[in-house]
Amino acid sequence: MGCGTGIITAKLAQDFPQSRVLGIDIAENMIEYARSCFTKEKNLNFITADADSLPLENENLDIAFSNLMLQWSPNLKTTLTALWRALKPGGKLIFSTLGPGSLNELRNAWAKIDHYKHVNNFVDREQLTEELMCAQFKILKFETVYHYRLFDTVLDLMHELKKLGANNLNELRNKNLSSKKSFKQLQIFYDKYRDKNNKLPASFEIYYVYATK
């Protein structure tokens, strides 16, 4: 789910050659790129699809895997329900997603510029647990890890978030693109977080979840 360029998906196909592996992403250009890169894995296929309406038969999957995609879902409940439907009884859901402690530096810097919400309101552990249980999943393991990435510039951070498929789902988001003036202000306020090595930190609260149907 949210396979992007297909690197991790291809690794799964290589590690489990007797299994059929399907990479799914909503971005058609990503799927086209993945297909062009991984042609040797005969047990691997890629399709363009929305996670909320998977084009799969009921009880078709043994395992559903997703790495840092679910946090961009506009309706997490719908997405989890779609995954539960597609999994076989006893099927496993393995994923990572971002928690509310993510991107605090970016969120705080934007807050000094305007009243819009430029960073997603990521669901917390309690809410995610509730959503999984409502979708009838049984949680086998739930781990929280705090991770920090260092960047040379704010633009480097933005490019990294774009690679993750970042989009702003908040109702109070600015529907117009941020102006050059706003971005310059962002650079000024974010620069206050530079460390002794002149790097800009970005915090990530990552949830690793292992659940079963």
The helix-and-strand class reads: alpha/beta
Low-confidence segments, ≥5 residues, pLDDT <50? 168-173
In total, how many domains does the architecture comprise?
1
The largest sheet, given as strand count, sense and whether it forms a barrel, is: 4 strands, mixed
Can you say what the CATH homologous superfamily is? Vaccinia Virus protein VP39
**What Rg is obtained from the alpha carbons, in whole angstroms?**
19 Å
Mean pLDDT: 91
CATH topology: Rossmann fold
Q: Could you tell me the number of beta strands?
A: 6
- How many helices? The count is 7
Largest sheet, order of strands side by side? 3-4-6-5
What would CATH call the class?
Alpha Beta
The termini sit apart by 17 Å
Strand content: 25-35%
What series of H and E elements makes up the topology?
HEHEEHEHHEHHE
**Considering DSSP H and I runs of 4 or more, what fraction of the residues is helical?**
25-40%
CATH 2nd-level architecture: 3-Layer(aba) Sandwich
The shape is globular
At a glance:
This protein is an alpha/beta fold and 213 residues long. It has seven helices and six strands, in the order H-E-H-E-E-H-E-H-H-E-H-H-E.
